[in-house]
Amino acid sequence: MNFLKTVRLRKPARQLADMDVPDTVWKQDFDIADRYQAFANEILRISLLGIAGHVFLIREVLTSNHRSCHTLLRENKLPIGAAAVSLVLAAALVLAHRFFSTACLYHQVLIVRSLKRIGSPNWTEAEKTIEKAFLGQTRKEQQDDHRISRLLLISSALLFATGFACVIFVSIRAFQFA
């Protein structure tokens, strides 16, 4: 059955009990997701600080009258550019991770509510069949969102590490020129 047709056929909750989900069912999932998002937020925060610091240092070098500063910039274009690009991409991927991570939690709530509906005697077998189709599609979407979210978080962490490795390399080179 087509997913959009399934969603259209799916009826809204008949009573509040259809929507009520005990904390014990979802709290652990949300706590784990909160820890992942806290890790992602730290990557975002430090990436943004790194970008700001990097831009400040480049501006100082460009406005400096010392020849060694301009030589440093000219000889290290690749690591300076790689640091900036890596940190910006890390921050962008963290934001995308947060979107997909939140979508996973949304799907989790839909799944729990669907399971509750399927187990409820208040729904007809035809409605439960529609709900099972909706549940299957929601689980598939959650798996896809989780896969993307995980890939985005891993990629952002790797880009973050690459960016700061380049920043450290350029900083060491700057001390050698000084």
Can you tell me about this structure?
The protein is an all-alpha fold. It has one domain (27-177): Up-down Bundle (subunit c (vma5p) of the yeast v-atpase, domain 2). The protein contains six helices and no strands. It is rod-shaped, with a radius of gyration of 25 Å. It starts with a helix and ends with a helix. The mean pLDDT is 85.
Distance between the termini: 69 Å
User: How many runs of DSSP E, i.e. beta strands?
Assistant: 0
- Beta content comes to under 5%
- Rough outline: rod-shaped
How many alpha or pi helices? 6
CATH class: Mainly Alpha
Low-confidence stretches: none
CA gyration radius, whole angstroms: 25 Å
Query: Which fold does the CATH topology refer to?
Result: subunit c (vma5p) of the yeast v-atpase, domain 2
Question: Biggest β-sheet: count, sense, barrel?
Answer: none
Topology summary:
Elements: H1 3-9, H2 16-19, H3 23-63, H4 67-75, H5 77-118, H6 125-177
Helix pairs in contact: 1-6, 3-5, 3-6, 5-6
Please name the defining characteristics of this protein.
single chain, 178 residues, mainly alpha, subunit c (vma5p) of the yeast v-atpase, domain 2, 88% helix, 0% strand
